[in-house]
Amino acid sequence: MAKTSSVEKNNHRRKLVKKFSGKRDRLKTIVMDKSLPIEERFEATLKLAQLPRNSAKSRIRNRCEVTGRPRAFYRKLKMSRIAMRELGSKGLIPGLVKSSW
Q: Which DSSP string do the residues of 2-64 spell out, in sequence order?
């Protein structure tokens, strides 16, 4: 089980991403628009830099929904390989057959 502080920190980042996604997208389109004057684009860059760092989508870490483990994460199942193996052995994941001999 991962530290609860790490899991909560990641959940906080998810909330910030959702909150600032619209504003961040608008500012990025202004910055990337080459037809606008350079002063306006630079001003949008400064406003983008004023947003919280944790509101960037790339700051979110994929974590297992069951254990909170940050590594060996399967995106399709949203869980780590260890949790997938345990639940698969118990037959709790539909369509997954865990072989053992």
A: --HHHHHHHHHHHHHHHHHHHHHHHHHHHHH-TTS-HHHHHHHHHHHHHS-GGGSGGG-----
Q: What is the pTM of this model?
A: 0.80
Kindly give the confidence (pLDDT) of every residue in the chain, 101 residues in length, as a single tens digit, with 9 standing for 90 and above. 778 999 999 999 999 999 999 999 999 999 999 999 999 999 999 999 999 999 999 999 999 999 999 999 999 999 999 999 999 889 898 988 877 77
User: What is the domain class of 62-95 according to CATH?
Assistant: few secondary structures
> What are the sequence ranges of the domains in the chain?
1-61, 62-95
